[in-house]
């Protein structure tokens, strides 16, 4: 027997520690019951000793189970002790909590006492009403969950990246530009149009609603292309409006447009059209910019872009420009101007989240009733989703931030510089003599071709 008891196990040590805790409360001992497994273990040891056999060693699994049971009993006893302390200090008539809440609770109870008439006679209101309230909360939560899966709520559509479909050209700096050609070929066209797309768009935008058969009928060559980093075009780290005009010029020469061509700009794409008038005016036949087209037959909503921070604008012009925009659009322009890095947070939560959002929210415009009706048409929504999917193909946020910053930065020129102006000879004797002998006239500077701004 002495050999068996000679070396204590961890269970014996634990039992010896909890036999008498020495903790007293109000003169009474707070006892902690001896774990059950200790009694069983002692009986096993005694039985084995009586038979003259040595005790078997405990497995690790048995030790873990016994340890968990012991801790469970300790936590249970601790919880009971905490409950008694709370009841004795906070649930008595003299406690601060009861004194403060007794009056208001009595008033509420007296006003709601009439509800007890709806309870059966054998039901205690103190026990019945908490159960009823809890069941009501469960029912309300279940109804709320069911309404979220109502068939009337439109499902969120995932962004799908389609296989590559663009025609590529190699630019002099080694970048690839993706473009799309509609209508007749450039070398046989009566009129050639090049259309840079707007923000969150791609070469697939083209002229929304215009059929290719109509372009062929009038001998029009329409060329659209992806801006750097959009669609299938390679990014350009140091791009500006000058490089944008040069890309447009190289594209025209590559596809066989050797004569002058028209530039079609809408939304933020008008920014690149203005750049073409500034940097390659000798190749531009004219420019088309659109304001709002609200006709459902046209299937388009277009608006020309100007720099909202243009220094040559008066305070009245700036105020009239900003007052029509919704708060979200104002915020985006402000962040692009002051804190462009914060744009990544909004872009990743919207069009770069991998899911399609509502079109009217992504446009960030205040729309009329006819415009909203256009957005609800399935054909426009399908066209919009396909264009957005192509725009975010590369999942690269940097080109979008660059485009946004370019809109509100210094363009390198003002729209007033594109106006036709007279440039006469300077003052002095030599200019006066040239004017006398050659009858020189004042020259016209600026873009001399037509600029059409449509607003419907």
Automatic annotation (TrEMBL):
AB hydrolase-1 domain mapped to chain residues: 193-289
Name of one Pfam family that matches: Abhydrolase_1
GO MF, one annotated term: hydrolase activity
Designated name of the protein: AB hydrolase-1 domain-containing protein
Organism: Nyssa sinensis
């Amino acid at each position: 027997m002495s050999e068996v008891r000679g070396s204590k196990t961890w269970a014996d040590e634990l039992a010896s520690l909890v036999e008498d805790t020495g903790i007293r409360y109000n003169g009474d001992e707070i006892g902690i019951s001896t774990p059950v497994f200790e009694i069983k273990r002692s009986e096993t040891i005694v039985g084995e000793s009586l038979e003259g056999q040595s005790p078997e060693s405990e497995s690790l699994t048995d030790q873990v189970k016994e340890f968990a049971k012991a801790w469970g009993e300790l936590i249970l006893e601790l919880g009971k002790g905490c409950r008694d302390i709370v009841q004795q200090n906070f649930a008595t008539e003299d406690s601060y909590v009861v004194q403060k809440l007794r009056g208001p609770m009595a008033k509420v109870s007296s006003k709601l006492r009439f509800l007890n008439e709806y309870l059966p006679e054998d039901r205690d209101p103190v026990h019945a009403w908490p159960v009823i309230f809890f069941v009501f909360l469960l029912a309300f939560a279940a109804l709320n969950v069911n309404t979220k899966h109502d068939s009337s709520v439109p499902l969120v559509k995932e962004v799908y990246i389609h296989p590559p479909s663009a025609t590529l050209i190699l630019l002099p700096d080694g970048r690839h530009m993706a473009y799309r050609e509609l209508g007749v070929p450039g070398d046989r066209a009566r009129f050639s149009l090049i259309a840079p797309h707007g923000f969150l768009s791609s070469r697939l935008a083209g002229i929304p609603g215009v059929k290719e058969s109509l372009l062929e009928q009038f001998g029009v060559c329409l060329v659209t292309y992806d801006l750097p980093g959009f669609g299938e075009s390679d990014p350009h780290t140091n791009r500006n409006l000058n490089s944008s005009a040069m890309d447009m010029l190289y594209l025209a020469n590559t596809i066989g447009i050797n004569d002058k061509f028209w530039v079609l700009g809408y939304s933020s794409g008008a920014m690149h059209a203005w750049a073409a008038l500034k940097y390659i005016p000798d190749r531009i036949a004219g420019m088309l910019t659109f304001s709002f087209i609200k006709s459902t037959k046209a299937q388009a909503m277009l608006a020309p872009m100007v720099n909202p921070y243009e220094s040559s604008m008066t305070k009245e012009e700036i105020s009239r420009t900003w007052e029509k925009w919704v708060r979200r659009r104002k915020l985006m322009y402000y962040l692009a101007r002051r804190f462009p890095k914060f744009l990544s947070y909004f872009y990743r939560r919207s069009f770069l989240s991998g899911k399609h959002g509502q079109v009217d929210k992504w446009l960030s415009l205040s729309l009329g009733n006819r415009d909203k009706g256009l957005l609800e048409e399935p054909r426009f929504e399908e066209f919009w989703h396909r264009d957005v999917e192509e725009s975010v193909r590369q999942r690269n946020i940097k080109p979008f931030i660059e485009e946004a910053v370019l809109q509100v930065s210094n363009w390198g020129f003002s729209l007033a510089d594109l106006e036709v102006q007279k440039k006469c000879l300077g003052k002095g004797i030599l200019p006066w003599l040239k004017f006398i002998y050659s009858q020189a006239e004042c020259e016209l500077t600026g873009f001399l071709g037509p600029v059409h701004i449509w607003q419907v």
